[in-house]
Amino acid sequence: IEHDLIILDYLADQVQIMYGREGAYGVVSRTRPVRTGINVYLSGYLKEENIRFRDQPIKFSEHPPTATKAKQHLVSWEGIKAQRGDFLLDAPAGQLPKGFACGVLGENGTGKTTFVKILAGVDKQDSGTIDASIKVAYKPQYLTVEEDTLVLAVLPGIASKRALMTGLNLEPLLQKQLSWLSGGELQRVALARCLSQDAGLFLLDEPSAYLDIEQRLGLAKLIKELTSVEGKTVLVVDHDLLFLDAISDFMMVFSGEPGTRGVVGAPVPLEDAMNTFLRSLGITMRRDEDSKRPRINKLDSRKDREQKASGKLYYG
C-alpha cells in the first residue's frame, strides 16, 4: 500500500485500485499491470467495470519546467551552523526566491527539519545570519493534539475560505473533536490552520504525510495557487517526488552524512536540483506517454542510458 505513485510504479508489478467513499465503504478493483492500473486510477474511470469513481481525471503537465529566474528574494542566510548533539547542520549561503514554491529533498537525518525550524524562529542557530522581516506560518513535521475542542474552534473564519475548504475537504471535519481525528484528518486541519494565516512565508514540513494520492494533489493545487495567484512564498519539505515535482519552481537538496552532518544546498531551479538529486541516486526519470506522470526509468534501459549520456536525468 503506497500513496507515492512514483515509488509504487517503480516497485510493483501489478496493482489493485481501491475506490469508494471516505468513512463509508471501499471497493477493490481487479488486478491490473502497474502502468495501466495507475493510469486508469488517474483517469477516474474503470472501463471494464464501467464505473466512474471520480468526476474529473488527474492530469500532469507534458513539458518539463523551464528555467525560472527570481526577480526578488524574500529570505537570505549566510554561514548558518547549528550543533545538535553529535549532529552539525551547515547552511553556507542561500536566498529564497519571492513568490515561488521551493521544494526540499534529502535523506533523513540531514537536518531538513532543523533548518526549517530555524527559519520559522522556533529554533536558533549557533552562528550565521538570516535576513528576513516577514511573517512566517509554520506547519511542523510532527502533529500533537493538546486541545479537546472542535475543529471549527481552531479554524476561525475557515468557512469563508472556499479554496481551503474544498481543496482539503474540511467540511466533514468541522464538528469533530480534535482528539477524534485520524492522522490524515489532523494533517488537513494543521495545513488549513497554517495556510489560512496572513503570512508572507509558509513553511510546510512533510505536509503529504498521512494524505492519500488525491489529497496530496489537491494540496499541490492549493500551493500553486498560493504562489502564482497570491504571490506568496512556500518552502516544502517532503519525500514524495511526484508531489514535489507538481509544486516546485525551485528546490534545495540536502547532502551530508545522516545523523552526523547535513549540508544545505542553496535554492536552484527545479530541473537543476533534480538532475543533481537523481545523479546521486543513479536513476533517471521520464514522463508517461499517456498520463504524462513522472516515472523512473528501468536501470540500464535504452532511455536510462540515453539520458545519462546527455546529462539530462530529469525528463531528458
Structure description:
- By secondary structure, the chain is of the alpha/beta class.
- It folds into 2 domains: 1-58, no CATH class; 73-280, P-loop containing nucleotide triphosphate hydrolases (Rossmann fold), CATH 3.40.50.
- The protein contains 10 helices and 18 strands.
- The protein has helices spanning 5-11, 34-43, 112-120, 151-154, 162-167, 183-195, 213-228, 241-247, 270-281, 302-310; strands spanning 14-15, 18-21, 25-28, 32-33, 45-46, 51-52, 73-84, 87-97, 101-105, 127-131, 136-139, 201-205, 233-237, 250-257, 261-264, 268-269, 285-287, 294-296.
- The strands form 5 sheets. Strands 7, 8, 9, 10, 11, 12, 13, 14, 15 and 16 form a 10-stranded mixed beta sheet that branches. A two-stranded antiparallel sheet has the order 1-4. It has a two-stranded antiparallel ribbon with strand order 2-3.
- α7 runs parallel beside α8 (241-247).
- It is globular.
- The mean pLDDT is 93.
Write the layout of secondary structure elements.
Elements: H1 5-11, E1 14-15, E2 18-21, E3 25-28, E4 32-33, H2 34-43, E5 45-46, E6 51-52, E7 73-84, E8 87-97, E9 101-105, H3 112-120, E10 127-131, E11 136-139, H4 151-154, H5 162-167, H6 183-195, E12 201-205, H7 213-228, E13 233-237, H8 241-247, E14 250-257, E15 261-264, E16 268-269, H9 270-281, E17 285-287, E18 294-296, H10 302-310
Parallel strand pairs: 8-15, 9-13, 9-14, 11-12, 12-13
Antiparallel strand pairs: 1-4, 2-3, 5-6, 7-8, 7-10, 14-15, 14-16, 17-18
Helix pairs in contact: 7-8
